[in-house]
From TrEMBL:
InterPro entries: CheW, CheW-like_dom_sf, CheW-lke_dom. This is Chemotaxis protein CheW. Residues 24-168 form the CheW-like domain. SUPFAM superfamilies: CheW-like (SSF50341).
Amino acid sequence: MNTTALQQPTKRQRTEALQASVQSAQYLTFMLAGETFAVGILAVKEIIEYRGLTEVPMMPVHVRGVINLRGAVVPVMDLLMRFGRAPSPVGKRTCIVILEIESEQERQVIGVVVDAVNEVLDIGASEIEPPPAFGARIRSDFIEGMGKVRDKFVILLDVNQMLSVGEAAQMTRQAESASSGPETSGRALTGE
């Protein structure tokens, strides 16, 4: 009787596999003005369909408004405007990526408007180049690195830098106080 035993991976193979898994990370890729960007998947809480936003006075110009996400007031930022460009047009595939950012003691939830979500990619550490020192269309401190994917570059965004917790907390406080103020009392914050 001829049986083939399953070969167990060697210690070296297990070590190499572990190192490869540690050295790669998953990123959610999305489109903005024809360019591909990505954020670390661990920061992504969910992706929702774009729907009307409630505008809030006195917010930074790059904040489009707020949505009601299961009872929580969530500010929604237009990333293109954050990068100093014209606002993102709303299309059929436009959606809001809900991100959770954190610092030492604070955790904030914020939405970002993107033209379309593409896919989740594994990008190895060896496939990530440092951010360019010049020539980028966005501030270099917003860029975590440049991921090489299928012979093209994907701009890996530094979510914590781009959406600083202090700034996000201030936006949330402003939005919450405006949504409970006299101008909006009696109106539900429906996001429409």
